[in-house]
Specification:
43% of the residues lie in helices and 27% in strands. The protein is built from 15 helices and 12 strands. The longest helix has 21 residues.
């Protein structure tokens, strides 16, 4: 999987923007789930899957926007007979660097909930589904789609292509460092995991995201100066009273953060001059600033305003 710019970031925006307005619970990962994520993570997305399933409109829009890589993962999970639609509460996607390649990126999914593991194992036995055994882990094929699943316990499953799951199990078993040893990311997670929808990106993931957000402005000389000083980023969405989106990009110093804010404000001004009244209104409701070496972007609107914005060229340019 080489196109990180068109998979996880797109999925994060797509999933985050389609949750029901009543979506209010926190999407937190258990220690077991965190330990099954390799340390060298590029992006992590965590959402309340149960709330998403309860909104038909949300599911329809997600099916239209979700990138092929993640759609394939979710389809495999839903068609596996594991009743994830009923039992999953939290769903996470993690993109991490392949330990066997300096360039490759793999994606693994993690589902949390109350799973009927005894029934599932009995069904595997009935269908003569044989697992691949890795140390104490039984990795089961999920039908003919090339995906595999392993249960860490009754409340947590890890799924994805076989090699991705194997790397996740290597992390959990201490063969390679896991997410919990990534101090910077763990600290960033503590800021956002009380939200219903949240995402973390490392430096490379942040650079890709910001390049997409800035568009043509990313070709400017100032962006080259800023790009290599991006350390990480995070964003959250809240739906309790309308829609609120908050993003923070951590820079190496205050001057770089201020420069990035100036670039983004310039992009906003340019888009205001060419956008529709709806897009101009959305940009007016967006605040861009910098503080103590961090670029911040905050957007808020009513539910109806945001629903209309989803079909606009501005939104499509962000999630493409």
């Amino acid at each position: 999987m080489t196109s990180i710019k068109q998979n996880l970031f797109t999925a994060a925006v797509a999933i985050a923007t389609i949750m029901a307005p009543t979506f209010a619970s926190a999407a937190q990962l258990s220690s077991d789930a965190k330990s099954a994520i390799p340390k060298d993570i590029q992006q992590l997305i965590v959402v309340d899957y149960h709330a998403m399933q309860n909104s038909p409109a949300a599911m329809e829009l997600k099916d239209r926007i979700l990138p092929p890589e993640l759609k394939r993962l979710e389809t495999a999970l839903k068609s596996s007979g594991l009743k994830v639609d009923q039992d999953a509460d939290v769903l996470a996607f993690a993109a991490f660097r392949d330990s066997g390649s300096s360039q490759g990126t793999r994606i693994v999914g993690i589902a949390q909930g109350q799973f009927h593991t005894r029934e599932i194992m009995a069904n595997f036995t009935k269908n003569k589904t044989k697992p691949y055994v890795l140390r104490n882990n039984s990795i089961y094929p999920m039908g003919s789609n090339g995906m595999s699943v392993v249960f860490l316990n009754q409340t947590t499953m890890v799924f994805g292509d076989k090699d991705s799951v194997k790397e996740a199990m290597d992390a959990r078993d201490g063969i390679v460092p896991d997410f919990l040893t990534n101090g910077d990311m763990v600290n960033e997670m503590g800021v956002v995991d009380s939200k219903a929808v949240w995402s973390l990106l490392d430096a490379k993931g942040t650079q890709t995201m910001m390049k997409g957000v800035l568009g043509d402005a990313a070709q400017l000389a100032d962006y080259d100066t800023v790009k290599n000083r991006m350390k990480s980023s995070r964003y959250t969405m809240d739906f309790q009273n309308g829609v609120k989106f908050d993003m923070a990009v951590v820079m190496s110093d205050t001057i770089t953060a201020a420069t990035a804010a100036t670039l983004l404000k310039g992009v906003s001004i340019m888009r205001k001059t060419s956008g529709s009244p709806l897009e101009k209104s959305a940009l007016e409701q967006t605040t861009i600033d910098s503080n103590s070496g961090t670029l911040t972007v905050a957007y808020s609107s009513s539910d109806s305003q945001f629903a209309s914005l989803l079909t606009s060229p501005l939104f499509q340019s962000v999630v493409k």
